[in-house]
Give the backbone structure.
Amino acid sequence: MKQDFFDRVYKIVAKIPKGKVTTYGAIAEVCGIRSAARTVGWALNGASSTGLPCHRVVNRRGALTGRVHFGDPFLMEELLRSEGIEFDKDGNVIMKNHLWIPKKNSKNKKSNKKKK
DNA sequence: TGGATGACCTACA
DNA sequence: CTGTAGGCCATCC
């Protein structure tokens, strides 16, 4: 069933520890679809209804791209700040201090990513 | 069945 | 370094 992909994303998002944030690319890679980062965001589109901490999911730059999908753009920021997450002057999350990479429960893979 | 959309990422100019 | 273009996967119409 294709929804298994959604389940993977939900599981990972639900595993995000408090005070930490992850990126779409990280989730996509853990799901096994690094190139389908867009699909991850698409899955989160329904995650806002599932009650998952989608507010802890940000893009590669740490920008809250999907905050508008929460219903309140400021809600996401408040939630993250309530968890101890800090924002820079650009309004992006300090991923270098709060970035959390989910663990894969399957086989390992090469982990090589360049930072900007 | 095919085209279009989506909360992205990477590469090239 | 900034900006633009392409791609990739999954779902919806």
User: Anything to note?
Assistant: Strands of chain A lie at 22-23, 57-58. Residues 2, 5-6, 28, 33-40, 42-43, 45 of chain A lie near DNA strand C (CB under 10 Å from a C1'). Confidence is low (pLDDT under 50) at residues 106-115 of chain A. Helices of chain A lie at 3-14, 24-31, 37-50, 73-82, 95-98.
